[in-house]
Specification:
By secondary structure, this protein is of the alpha/beta class. 39% of the residues lie in helices and 13% in strands. The chain is built from 2 helices and 3 strands. The chain has a 3-stranded parallel sheet with strand order 1-2-3, sandwiched between helices. The radius of gyration is 13 Å and the shape is globular.
Length: 71
C-alpha cells in the first residue's frame, strides 16, 4: 500500500510473517488468540491495552520510513 501512496500499519502477532510479506510498519499485537485485546484484563484493562495499541499504530503511521520497522 505504501508504494501506492497509502500509508498503513499492520497490527499482528506474526512478526516474521509480516516481514516476509513486505509489511513496512509492523505493530506487535497483544497475543495470538486476541491480537488487539486480552479478555483476562477486564473492561478497564482492555480499554488501556487497546488505546496503547492504537497509539503505537498512529506513531507507526506518522513515522517516515525507508524499509521495514517493528514499532
Amino acid at each position: 500500500m505504501d508504494r501506492e501512496g497509502v500509508t498503513a500499519a499492520l497490527i499482528t502477532t506474526l512478526i516474521s510473517v509480516a516481514k516476509n510479506v513486505g509489511a513496512n510498519r509492523i505493530v506487535p499485537g497483544a497475543g495470538v488468540p486476541h491480537v488487539t485485546g486480552n479478555p483476562d484484563l477486564g473492561p478497564a484493562g482492555e480499554r488501556a491495552l487497546r488505546a496503547a495499541l492504537v497509539e503505537r499504530a498512529l506513531t507507526a503511521l506518522t513515522t517516515p520510513l525507508e524499509g521495514q520497522r517493528v514499532f
